[in-house]
Amino acid sequence: MKEDIDTLKDDWLTDNSIAFWEEYLEREYLTQYPNAHIVLLRPSMSFMLGQTPDPLTLKEALPNFSRTSHIFLPINDCRNPALAEGGSHWSLLLVSVVDEVAFHYDSMHPSNASSAALTAEKMSTLLGKKLVLKDLEDSPQQENSSDCGVFVCILMKHLLLEKLLKAARGEKIGMSMANKQVDANKVRKEMLGIIESFRREGERRRRYAAILLAQSFDYS
Hints:
By secondary structure, the chain is an alpha/beta fold. It has 6 helices and 5 strands. Helix 1 packs antiparallel against helix 6 and helix 2 runs parallel beside helix 5.
């Protein structure tokens, strides 16, 4: 949607923008690691999980976590179930199922502390494990009021590619993001560039399909 693309330029990212980023990471990177059992939960499902009194009622709608090692959850501070696109701040919760720890990365610490704690509690119920919440105060901090979603996207990518997927089996991973430099404008340009490349690829495929269709009529 045009609205979602426009927010990537200089505004607060929408659910769809973050969901697109998760899908991109899955398609471009996670597919190369078939033995990695990592889930990137979409913002809408994370929000639903945090708002549902009994998270076990969502089990059929959620991925099967029985073999999952880590779960990424974008956290929104909206508390109104009727406003799935509401809220004013994003943060990132990374659940290490194997270690029974939920790491919280908040670029305006501690703005989303209560929302993260609530979601971690719901995940504990869902997984049947008592998760320990670690609110990482040394997470990179944004310098304005609109980059929180961008920070979620870049931290998600870094944690996934530079920590989880690079770690040897059984290796203990340091999950702190202290001293990680985040260039929000660069990330916004990267995301817009990815969308543009997908648009061009879509146009190329449509043109190719049209040529094939025209040729099939010529042969008939």
